Amino acid sequence: MLRKKTPSNDKMEYRLLGHTGLKISALSFGASSLGSVFRETREAESIEAVEAAIEGGINFIDVSPYYGYYKAETVLGKALRHIPRDKYYLSTKVGRYGKDGVNTWDYSAQRATESVYESMERLGVDYIDLINVHDIEFQAALPGGLQRVVDETLPALTELKRKGIVGHVGITDLQLDNLRWVVEHSQEGTVESVLNFCHYCLNDDALVDYAGCFELHGVGIINASPLSMGLLSSRGIPAWHPAPKQLVKACERAAQYCQDKGYPIEKLAVQFAVSEPRIASTLFSSANPDNVRRNIAWACEEPDWQIVSDVKEIIGNQQRVTWKNT
Predict the structure, then answer these.
(1) Which of 260, 227, 224, 253 is nearest to 316 (CA)?
(2) Which letter does DSSP use for residue 197 in this model?
(3) Are 198 and 225 in contact (CB under 8 A)?
(4) Residue 196: φ, ψ to 5°
(5) pLDDT, tens digit, for every residue of 135-191?
(6) Mind telling me the catalytic residues?
(7) pTM of the prediction?
């Protein structure tokens, strides 16, 4: 099959992830789409999307066993067979799983350890650069609460780091207060990065309020979902989106304004998300190689700051309105 060639992008910016020593691309590839999380995908196209990301200068890939109930890791593993290991840093997660459409959570030390080895087998690698505790707010609602992440999950992953199985340890969540709590209640240096989504985008930049705290503890910051799970898109949100109706309407008005300006809101959103130097990288996800190439090109350009200002004004009092994870 003939494939379009994505030239290596010398305009891509690379930033250090906290104190890890990892210098990662300002725009990174989230592999959730490879699990058919948002639409049914073709394996060959998904593999080409990964290749396009690497060829375009992206060097950080994030995935999880939860995405597509192991499908995303499996498909990503097939793509990575053809890519030299020194071309990318690889991140996956523990704690959140599922099967046959049923979600499950298990933050125990034993399951976390088992999960890492299972992920490596699916991914076809013998080393994970960054291992994350996935969506810690769900453990907050389980017996032991977030303290279990501190006392059990993180020490299990730290032991794998000591053994050289993983390189670095992080946590992920939608709720910023949970991330801060675990960072502040863990032994210094245990949490090396945080991954947060939908809180550094055109409609919600609350992540910057926490940057000082994370930096104080030497914790690197990864942002995800620059389109705020579809809120900042011309096609609108999927039916399952949990955003309040007023916020949805405000973002629809902003998208129409951008369309009238001839400046797609998706372009503006990606450019805005990668513009904050305190954030090491922003993850986006697509199984469409043309979309990957387009996002890379956008990320290497400065946004129109007047349109950014206009869009924020249109969103108005819906700025920083958030929701619970699902």
Answers:
(1) 253
(2) E
(3) yes
(4) -130, 145
(5) 999 999 999 999 999 999 999 999 999 999 999 999 999 999 999 999 999 999 999
(6) 67
(7) 0.95
